[in-house]
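Researcher: Here's my situation. A collaborator sent me these components and asked whether they could plausibly form a single complex. I don't have experimental data yet, so a predicted model of the whole assembly would be a useful starting point for our discussion.
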Amino acid sequence: MTTDFLVGQIRKKESFLCIGLDTDLDKVPKHLLKEEDPIFAFNKAIIDATHHLCVAYKPNTAFYEAYGIKGWQALEKTINYLNINYPEIFTIADAKRGDIGNTSTRYAKAFFEDLGFDSVTIAPYMGRDSVEPFLAFKDKHTILLALTSNMGAFDFQTKMVDGKELYKQVLEISKTYENSENLMYVVGATKATFLTEIRNIIPNSFLLVPGVGVQGGSLAEVCRYGMSDNVGLLVNSSRGIIYASDQDNFAQASAEKAKELQQEMSLELKKR
Amino acid sequence: MTTDFLVGQIRKKESFLCIGLDTDLDKVPKHLLKEEDPIFAFNKAIIDATHHLCVAYKPNTAFYEAYGIKGWQALEKTINYLNINYPEIFTIADAKRGDIGNTSTRYAKAFFEDLGFDSVTIAPYMGRDSVEPFLAFKDKHTILLALTSNMGAFDFQTKMVDGKELYKQVLEISKTYENSENLMYVVGATKATFLTEIRNIIPNSFLLVPGVGVQGGSLAEVCRYGMSDNVGLLVNSSRGIIYASDQDNFAQASAEKAKELQQEMSLELKKR
């Protein structure tokens, strides 16, 4: 998917919502457990109920790997279902991979070609030759971890490197990578100061922002300091939407939660 | 597996060789492609031919994910085969994972409990709460990327942070993590100066050293500056061993290559 198409979808749906499909069999409604593939049954119901309110879905691969072969089958079914029924949706494999060149190419093929995801999240620690193999795929997007929203982010990401925090070095240095126009960034910051400084370095890149919703963080603040001319934001919510209810009406309940966020987003888009 | 058991195996076999099972269907002998599961058939033959010469096997998960469900099945069969037939072998899932707490726990369960690996490689970028969920598993080992052997290592890992290279900060800070005794480190350095400095920070931790063999790097140098009182080294070779031949005799050829390294290692162990 091209970035222009994604921006068009955001304008059309008045939404830059990404729904995290972190599907956990301990949390899905009990009646689904008798289905042949409860993970896929859950995802399908959530997707059917919410696809018009969001522009992206983001399965975190850990949740699928945790169920072994069955989990991978559910992931394959989910991405296939999205690509066939809702090809206008931007899909993110939240895999946080990263390996040396030859091996990165294998991961890139697996996620971009075999599974058919539009994008994948990547850890930056191994540097240029671990990232560029992903960037080589046309109209596919590599979402680099810059500043994450967990406490551990302060261990290394915010440490000063040559007078600048490490996560800013990641932003700066990755701009020099070949095909860097295919980069997006995970930015867990919801604080104004962080976002302003990040936008000084990457004025137009898309930011994938976790941490709005259940994890706290203000959507208005993120929009005020993080929105770019082409919107440039995908704001993710996982648990707050998909686990809105564990009853028969779970899909409808998730749609209501998604609708609340979409309406807030619609207002933010109209402010600009 | 306990570290003591691993050290005992190293002493007994006079080997600290780890064989990387980076199995690529473009490179395996052609006659295997008619097998029902050529990846597993290849791995099984290599393992049967080399298990007495090495102490560890390290499948890189990218090579398996690249083949989708079939790849994961081959990975499961490989680790099961190792655990049933050669339980004395230390197994490493070279997965380079890393995610926030809750999600890391899922990865840890997948690799340690469901698949039954002894260890997994982890990227440090997300910090403490992305690593500690792995460290919580008794007699399981978390192999943290410190200094990798690729060019991209110079993008961030060797940058100065508070007067010390980032990879050294990773070594220092990770020592403060809960259950840090379960940490090992990927150290791609084969240069004396690097290894000496690393050993000053972590005198006893096991180092997983890639880059000896095909990628160059001297075993003697690694041993001289990297070996600790409990050996503390696992030296990996992948392509140099497993692709020694693409003919019918491939397994025997791989054993010969493994034997060469084992004999060098035996001499190094005797020097101390």
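Model: Some features of this prediction you could bring to your collaborator: The radius of gyration of chain A is 18 Å. Chain A touches chain B through 53 residues (CB under 8 Å).
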